[in-house]
Design goal:
globular, binds nicotinamide-adenine-dinucleotide, about 500 residues
């Protein structure tokens, strides 16, 4: 057992649990300490400008009446509109929406999107409601936001988050436009909409794509990979993903396409491990067929979800929920790189513990900013009422064709049909969105890396060994999750 393992295993009284917003503010304070801004200005930035908590009744299909609790927080009115997702989860509360709204402010700044941060949520388990009930909840939520001026193209623009997607965004835009029929720019009141309702190509997978690009960029820097004992590039890197929702699934798919090996998954129903690689498409089909990832041929079911996070791997992508790696399990994380796909999956203390062990942590306010970036493109598209690429695509194609014809004439050689098609392809909406996303992420990553190196020196590497300590710790975690560790768990 290493000194660090001993230190973290010492029985110490736990501090008072600190709120999610406090976690975000701790990280803010760490960064703020490195700036020269006036403390009053920093306090101003940290505070949340407005929070709206409201309740409304839902008459369920069986006739019973339920009281629904909902929130919208606008963290910073410094730049308008404010922007941030809406989450449907039983865990939603005021602290959570305020913390997530604050993260949105910082996220928009990191990827240079001119919005303040916001977040909304409804405290429901969406799996327990029929689509009709969910539609009533969403429309009533939108109505309440309209009433209090907490939604609008120039005021506050929601988007999907945990438990919501294009369907909910379609209900929101429809309700908003019904209530403000004369607003020409009404469809810009929400992003993440289906294409037919003013959405944009590439939005659905944008956050996952951003996660994959951030991971790829980090792995491309040989100087940072060496101290971690890793080679340069994504190819062959062993990855564990937590959460196979919008963010996790798309990130996993793109990382797999880029040559990484998916060796573990953690979902609501449990965790699985396949050290030789788990093919995502096959796992997806298995889950659709059986309703669970568990029992997937070629992988081992782990005793509990927590064990999945602690698998031996190169990269861990927690892309489900906040507070997944805390001071309790940070010392058992074996990944050398942790990519925060979700918002706040690492507590501030866990992040520090991993950093001290030389683990490279890519932070959420950069890593999952792809969603808000492409939402910004969608908002611009809605305001301009024209699809990106509509004016120039054909013109570009004809110009490229003329150049090819001129080259063919000058060289007396002809291009083949595949070459012609590739060279004369004019950029359409999806091309432009992905190009904007890639360009922003690549430059933001290298800017962040420069700042990190300026203040902390390049990434330190090398994980301490201390296997025994970690294994016994994992057993404890599984027991506390109320399950026994079966003999089939692979040895590492
Ligand atoms: P989602 O609802 O599409 O997916 C979440 C997934 O996590 C689901 O498959 C769910 O079953 C799984 N899950 C729930 N509890 C779990 C647990 N305890 N262990 C393992 N898996 C669990 O949500 P999403 O949109 O993918 O969002 C995931 C995270 O990413 C959230 O923190 C969200 O705030 C953040 N985020 C999302 C977006 C976006 O564009 N959707 C943008 C930025 C950040």
């Amino acid at each position: 057992m290493t000194v660090i393992d001993e230190l973290v295993n010492v029985k110490r009284p736990l501090p008072e649990p600190i709120s999610f917003f406090e976690q975000v503010n701790r990280n803010f304070d760490k960064a703020a300490a490195l700036t020269t801004h006036h403390p009053d200005l920093l306090t101003l930035i940290k505070n949340c400008n407005s929070v709206y908590h409201f309740t409304f009744p839902l008459q369920r299909t069986d006739g019973s009446i339920e009281v629904i609790h909902a929130w919208r927080a606008e963290h910073s009115h410094h730049k308008l509109p404010t922007k941030g997702g809406i989450r449907y989860s039983l865990g939603v509360n005021e602290d959570e929406v305020v913390a997530l709204a604050a993260l949105m402010t910082y996220k928009c700044a990191v990827v240079d999107v001119p919005f303040g941060g916001a977040k909304g949520g409804i405290a429901i388990d969406s799996k327990k409601y029929t689509p009709q009930e969910l539609e009533r909840i969403t429309r009533r939520y939108t109505y309440e936001l309209v009433k209090k001026n907490f939604i609008g193209p120039g005021t506050d623009v929601p988007a999907p988050d945990f438990g919501t997607g294009p369907r909910e965004m379609a209900w929101i835009v429809d309700t908003y436009i019904a209530l403000s029929p004369d607003k020409l720019e009404g469809s810009a009141c929400v992003t993440g909409k289906p294409l037919a309702q003013g959405g944009i190509r590439g939005r659905a997978e944008a956050t996952g794509r951003g996660v994959a690009i951030a991971t790829r960029e980090a792995c491309e820097v040989e100087e940072d990979m060496k101290p971690l004992g890793l080679s340069r590039g994504l190819a062959g890197k062993r990855i564990v993903v937590q959460g196979l929702g919008n963010v996790g699934y798309n990130a996993a798919r793109l990382l797999e396409d880029a040559g990484a090996v998916l060796v573990g998954f953690v979902e609501y129903e449990g965790a699985i491990h396949g050290p030789k690689g788990i093919e995502l498409a096959k796992l997806w089909a298995h889950r659709r067929e059986t309703g669970s990832m568990l029992g997937f041929p070629g992988a081992t079911d782990l005793p509990c979800r927590e064990a999945g996070l602690e698998l031996d791997c190169d990269i861990l992508v927690p892309a489900a929920l906040e507070n997944q790696v805390t001071r309790e399990n940070a010392h058992r994380i074996r990944a050398k790189i942790v990519v925060e796909g979700a918002n706040g999956p690492l507590t501030s203390e866990a992040s520090e513990m991993l950093g001290k062990r030389g683990v490279l942590v890519l932070p959420d306010h950069f890593v999952n900013a792809g969603g808000v970036l492409v939402s910004y493109f969608e908002w611009l598209k809605n305001l301009s009422h024209v699809r990106f690429g509509r004016m120039e695509k054909r013109f570009e194609e004809q110009a490229f064709r003329r150049i090819l014809t001129a080259i063919e004439g000058a060289t007396n050689k002809s291009f083949g049909p595949t070459e012609v098609a590739a060279i004369t392809h004019g950029a359409d909406e999806a091309d432009l969105v992905n190009s904007g996303l890639e360009d922003t992420f690549v430059s933001a990553y290298h800017r962040l890396r420069e700042i990190r190196n300026q203040h902390r020196g390049p990434a330190r590497g090398g994980l301490p060994s201390g296997r025994a300590g970690r294994r016994s710790g994992r057993d404890r975690a599984c027991r506390s999750a109320g399950r026994r560790r079966p003999a089939s768990v692979p040895r590492r």
